[in-house]
Write a structure and sequence with these properties.
The complex is a heterodimer of chains A (about 425) and B (about 130). With about 425 residues, chain A is an alpha/beta fold. Chain A has 2 domains: about 325 residues, ANL, N-terminal domain (Rossmann fold); about 100 residues, ANL, C-terminal domain (GMP Synthetase, Chain A, domain 3, 2-Layer Sandwich), CATH 3.30.300. Helix content of chain A is about 30%, strand content about 25%. Chain A is built from 11 helices and 23 strands. In chain A, β21 and β22 form a beta hairpin. The longest helix of chain A has 22 residues. The mean pLDDT of chain A is about 95. Chain B has about 130 residues and is of the alpha+beta class. Chain B has 2 domains: about 70 residues, VC0802-like (2-Layer Sandwich); about 60 residues, VC0802-like. In chain B, strands 1, 2, 3, 4, 5, 6 and 7 form a 7-stranded antiparallel beta sheet that branches. In chain B, β5 and β6 form a beta hairpin. Chain B is elongated, with a radius of gyration of 16 Å. The model of chain B has no long low-confidence stretch (mean pLDDT about 95). Classes of the chains: A alpha/beta (about 425), B alpha+beta (about 130).
């Protein structure tokens, strides 16, 4: 089994601790002197960089949450000069405003390095042809895998998401050996492959899946259905993008690139650090980022961690399959959606904030997203065409706000389930974890 | 201007029956109606003897109902008279919807919602039709 970077991935515990000590000190120094937001937080806790002598002092440092990025939109959390930023990416925020992240040239190189490690863990190397079917653009998925795969020396097919017909044609014609996409999209592609009897004409060997939670059952289904091996890649744009962690061929937890990202698991209520093996919220500190380094970022993903070396030879910390989220965020077709965004979109349509209910389900391994909106006095019309326009406007506004196209259903007033007088906003019928 | 009772009804079993029962209880008589359906819901338009009471009763009964201004135009009950009325309106006016009202020989009634209600009413009246 090939390891991309044994000096970093197979470090001894002692070497890693020394590396962490040095990098945390340097990070805190940089943040204190370049980012007023963090300087203030540290001063409120009576801390200066000199008080952080090693990695174990991380528990003294403040946490960062997504709202902090939103409140400091776009550039106030950046630790590098704007002219040093060679890339910007953006993801949706909790209430309409996106969060913006910036990368220096070095940050991009670290990203490439991390993704190269992940792809190597999946047995991908020079000679492989990788079809990158994550969305290209402001989303970190497409470009993240792209640059990492190019760095690795594989042949990159930057096909982006969608257009299943073309995905299949290229897989057959170009001899694709690896695909990177969300697991639900891969399930959809698989259906098409089987329907069109293409399985034996493919050279597909491996898939790099991420961007949404997925079950062991779905994994088995795709692996058995296509005869390929699936790997579970993790990342988030606030930290970097895909490549923060991934499982190796032993599939016993995901290896964190922990020379670059220090991982802690904390109790989401008390914020106490939890011991290995206990489930809590994953907190990540970007040890080497220059553009927008973050201290103890609360990911809201629930998992447990182990520091036992893996039988693959890598000694990096591993996190378990995600067990859920500690907030109300949904991931629908790989897109992060907060109920508050839906509220904001409906407010654009009518200041009376109609009662609504979102129902998310999974049919044939594909996420369905339906919104029922009660017709109140303000929205009422005697003309069907007006109501049809309303449905369309709701759908378009949601499409523009959260990037997903819902099915809109207009319903009579007071028909949605209520508890305490308020309609239950989101019903997720999927079993994901 | 006449008042029409407009009701938004989900395409659910029993909804129409419940509405009819409610109007019966409230002592409201239906004079004419039209039901425009889509896959998820229907827009029920009713001409009743007591529109104000009707809308109050329906609202109290949990229905999404409102009053809409419409015209009742009385045209001669003979072949060709609808065509003549529409020729009169020409391309200037857009008919949103229409449906028959009661026939009171020698006339037939049409309930109409038109793009510019006041101007349309005037035009129809000036042409000699009876219009409410």
């Amino acid at each position: 089994m090939v390891i991309w970077n044994t000096s970093k991935e197979c470090m001894s515990t002692e070497d890693r601790r020394l590396l962490h000590d040095a990098r945390l000190r340097k990070l805190v120094d940089r943040l204190y002197h370049h980012v007023p937001f963090y300087r203030q937080l540290m001063q409120e806790r009576n801390l200066t960089p000199v008080d952080i002598s090693g990695i174990s002092d991380i528990v003294l440092l403040p946490f960062t949450v997504k709202d902090d990025l939103r409140d400091n939109y776009p550039y106030d959390l950046f630790a590098a000069a704007e002219t040093e930023i060679v890339r910007l990416h953006a993801s949706s925020g909790t209430t309409g405003k996106p969060t913006v992240v910036g990368y220096t040239r070095r940050d991009i190189e670290v990203w490439q390095e991390c993704v190269a490690r992940c792809l190597t863990m999946a047995g991908i190397g020079i000679g492989d042809k990788i079809q990158v079917a994550y969305g290209y653009g402001l989303f970190t998925g497409g470009l993240g895998i792209h640059y990492g795969a190019e760095n690795l020396g594989a042949t990159v097919i930057p096909i982006s998401a969608g257009n299943t017909r073309r995905q299949l044609d290229f897989m057959v014609d170009l001899g694709t050996t690896a695909i990177a996409c969300t697991p639900s999209y891969l399930a959809h592609v698989m259906e098409n492959i089987i329907e069109n009897n293409l399985k034996d004409r493919l050279k597909l060997r491996v898939a790099i899946c991420g961007g949404e939670p997925w079950t062991v059952e779905l994994r088995r289904k795709i692996e058995d259905g296509l005869g390929i091996e699936l790997f579970d890649i993790y990342g988030l744009s606030e930290i970097m993008g895909p490549g923060v962690a991934q499982d190796c061929h032993l599939h016993q937890g995901s290896h964190i690139m922990d020379d670059h990202f220090y991982a802690e698991v904390v109790d989401p209520d008390t914020l106490e650090t939890l011991p290995d093996g206990e489930t809590g919220e994953l907190v990540l500190t970007t040890l080497t980022k220059e553009g927008i380094p973050l201290l103890r970022y609360r990911t809201k993903d629930l998992t447990s961690i182990t520091h036992e070396p893996c039988a693959c030879g890598r000694t990096s910390a591993r996190i378990s399959r995600f067990k859920g989220r500690s907030d109300d965020m949904l991931i629908i077709r790989g897109v992060n959606v907060f109920p508050s965004q839906i509220e904001a979109a409906l407010f654009e349509i009518s200041e009376t904030r109609p009662q609504y209910q979102v129902v998310v389900d999974r049919v044939n391994d594909y996420d369905t997203f339906e919104i029922a909106v009660e017709i109140d006095a303000c929205l009422f019309s005697d003309e069907v065409s007006t109501l049809e326009n309303l449905s369309r406007r709701i759908s378009e506004t949601l499409q523009n706000t959260i990037g997903l196209h819902p099915t809109v259903k207009l319903v009579e007033p007071n028909t949605l389930d209520r508890s305490d007088g308020k309609a239950k906003r989101v019903i997720d019928k999927r079993r994901l974890f | 201007m006449a008042k029409q009772l407009s009701v938004f009804l989900e395409n659910r079993s029993g909804r129409l029956r419940q509405l009819a029962g409610l109007l019966k209880e409230a002592g409201i008589n239906i004079l004419s109606f039209n039901l425009a359906e889509t896959s998820d819901y229907g827009m029920l338009r009713l001409m009743v003897d007591e529109p104000e009471q009707g809308v109050a009763a329906l609202a109290a009964g949990g229905f999404a109902a409102d009053l809409t201004d419409v015209l009742i135009v009385h045209i001669p009950a003979r072949m060709g008279s609808l065509s003549e009325l529409l020729d009169l309106l020409g391309d200037t006016f857009n008919i949103k919807y229409m449906y028959p009202y009661q026939t009171q020989e020698p006339n037939a009634g049409m309930v109409m919602k038109i793009s510019d209600m006041a101007a349309a009413k005037q035009l129809i009246k000036d042409a000699g039709y009876t219009v409410e």
